[in-house]
């Protein structure tokens, strides 16, 4: 393990790393659909929704003249297309809002809250997510995530892996990039963070995509920490 004595803050990817978005959304929508008498393949819809996640953010990058669009709005646009694709009829505006805000109601992985609580005793901890501020704040209340503050791509008007996100987080914390550690279950996120000078910690979440998972089963880069879960990160950082 490299020298991490200068690290003062840990910033976390959230979707997939801190919370189990797939199981949370599928379970939420199945029960909601039963109550509303709406039947569809919710698993396929959730997987389809996440599949267009990156493309929706890429569209924002390609068209800066249109201005930054926060993730809630991107999710809503993608959902409307999926509702039409799945031929789901009778949804009201309130229904579409409820489904979109399913991303605000995600459950943490079993180790997340306890691990974050341990890490918080020694470090400033914050999300560094593509989710917007309201989404991340509501999620933290719902999932009891003990963040010290909320940092979102929305603050920088750039989505990860743009450098403005990683360097912007360090700047807001008044820290040098190498005094900040990015924690993620995605090797690509860590590669970008490392490129811009942050320290890195990998935690595998091999069930994030269920049977659709194809990558990120294990660390593929030279990360500063590789751990089984957040408790393992805390162990290696002396918390």
CATH architecture tag of the largest domain? 3-Layer(aba) Sandwich
CATH H-level superfamily of the largest domain: HAD superfamily/HAD-like
Radius of gyration: 18 Å
Identify the CATH class of the largest domain. Answer: Alpha Beta
Distance between the termini: 16 Å
Question: How many separate domains?
Answer: 2
Query: Which regions are unreliable across 5 or more consecutive residues at pLDDT < 50?
Result: none
The major beta sheet can be summarized as: 6 strands, parallel
- The strand order across the widest sheet is 3-2-1-4-5-6
Taken as a percent bin, the fraction of beta residues is: 5-15%
Task: Please state the structural category.
Answer: alpha/beta
**For the residues shown, what is the average pLDDT?**
95
Oligomer: single chain
Break the fold down into its secondary structure elements and pairings.
Elements: E1 9-12, H1 21-36, H2 42-51, H3 53-62, H4 71-85, H5 93-100, H6 112-120, E2 124-129, H7 133-143, E3 151-152, H8 153-156, H9 163-172, E4 180-184, H10 187-195, E5 199-203, E6 225-227, H11 230-236
Parallel strand pairs: 1-2, 1-4, 2-3, 4-5, 5-6
Helix pairs in contact: 1-2, 4-5, 6-11
């Amino acid at each position: 393990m490299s020298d991490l004595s200068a690290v003062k803050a840990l910033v976390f990817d959230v979707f997939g790393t801190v919370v189990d978005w797939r199981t949370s959304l599928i379970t939420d929508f199945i029960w909601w659909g039963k109550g509303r008498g709406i039947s569809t393949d919710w698993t396929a819809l959730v997987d389809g929704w996440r599949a267009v996640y990156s493309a929706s953010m890429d569209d924002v990058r390609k068209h800066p003249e249109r201005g930054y669009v926060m993730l809630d709005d991107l999710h809503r646009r993608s959902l409307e297309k999926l509702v039409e694709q799945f031929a789901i009829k009778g949804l009201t505006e309130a229904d579409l809002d409820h489904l979109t805000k399913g991303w605000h109601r995600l459950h943490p992985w079993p180790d997340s809250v306890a691990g974050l609580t341990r890490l918080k005793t020694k470090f400033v901890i914050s999300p560094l997510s593509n989710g917007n501020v309201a989404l991340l704040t509501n999620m933290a209340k719902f999932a009891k995530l003990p963040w010290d503050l909320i940092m979102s791509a929305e603050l920088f008007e750039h989505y990860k892996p743009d450098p403005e996100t990683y360097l912007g987080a360090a700047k807001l914390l008044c820290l040098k990039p190498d005094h900040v550690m990015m924690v993620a279950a995605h090797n690509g996120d860590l590669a970008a963070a490392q490129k811009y000078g942050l320290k890195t910690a990998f935690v595998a979440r091999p069930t994030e995509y269920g049977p659709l998972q194809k990558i990120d089963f294990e660390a593929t880069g030279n990360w500063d920490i590789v751990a089984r879960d957040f408790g393992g990160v805390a162990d290696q950082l002396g918390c």
